Structure formats: structure tokens, C-alpha cells
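So, who can interpret the following?
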Amino acid sequence: MAKTKKSIVFCHGIWADGSSFNKVIPTLQAEGYEVMAAQYGLDTPEGDVATVKRTLGRVSNPTILVGHSYGGTVITAAGTDERVALAPDANETSQSQQEKFPVTEVFKFVEIADGRVWMKPEGIVCFAGDLSEQEQKVTWATHFAPAADLFTKSVAGVAWKSKPSWYIVANKDRTVQPELQRFLAKRMGAKTFEVESSHVAMLSNPMLVTDVIRTAANAVQESATTK
């Protein structure tokens, strides 16, 4: 009997949307995966998680959730959904996690206006410094500002306590401290990969990111067939 591949739902970070995975999605689609990127508003964690759950209803299940940066917070909660095969502690917020480590350079180049956190043009090198100059300009031009209080709010659910996890640490990240990434990966018992990348590894190192997703999907598939 032919194996049915898991579906994959991507969850983006701040200053981004689902198109940030546009270098990864085509390869996975060509390999037969059903793929969607959740498009949420970065207004509240609860609202963003609800959007992810609605997206889960549009693909076959079980599903693998792939989160980038703040998207990791989203999949931590949304991943408790019974339709999810793979995916911060319950009373933590993104802000409380980052406060345990030195402030990264990108936050020197932000401005709060109209209740949102905007990245100044000078900040893009801290966010996506290993992309070409043209790609950096496009990434800044299309960045989506989160609500100013987004990181201070927590959301219920901790998927990694009951489901397997994989984690990519970006060693040259100037947006989220690499040491914070290693701490989180170790705490969740994730299979961890490291790459010499900026914050946007899926854009600067799409082949590695695709390989890790493929590895995770195969592992979950093999686990399911041996049960």
C-alpha cells in the first residue's frame, strides 16, 4: 500500500507573512506534499492560533506544523489540535523568553506607531543580512508589523510536551539570540540542526530547511507505520 504523505502548514513570524516560505513550498509541493501557509494578522496570539486551526481544516490530516520565530509560539498552541502529528511553556510569553537574553541588534531599528512595531530600513541587515541587497529591500518593503503588545501575551497549549519536535538554530541571527534558540530546542527535546544563517534561514538556506522538514515528515511517517 502506498504511503500517504503528511500535509504541511507553515506559520510565519513577525515582520513577515506566509510568502516568506516561497523558496521552500514549491519543492515540497513537487514531492507530493499538500502545503498551505497560514495567513494571520499578528494582532493577538489567540487570533493567530485560531487562524492556524482554520487552516488545518483546509488540508488533509494529520498535519505537520512548521513555525518560524513567533510562528513557533503559534504552533506550540495550535499543535495541541488532534489533527497535528508534529509540532514556550504554557505560562510564558515571547517577551518573557527574550528578556532572559541580551537584546538583539534589530531592536535598535524599530519604531512603534499606530499600535504596531515597524522595522526601520536600517534594521533589515539584522533581520535578513545574508540575502542579496535586492532581496533585503523586498523583504523590508513587504514586512508586516505586529501589534505592539503581541509578545506580552501568552496562549494556552504546549504541543512539544506530547509531540516530536525538530529545530533549526540560526547561528548568525541578529533578531533572536542563537543562545535562546538553543535553550528552547534543548528544553523541548528537539532534534536540532544549526546553520550559519540570519534570522530568515528559509530564504537564505531553503535547501537545508526543506531537508529538515523532509526529515521530520519521514520520521513521523515511519513512526505511524510501525504502530
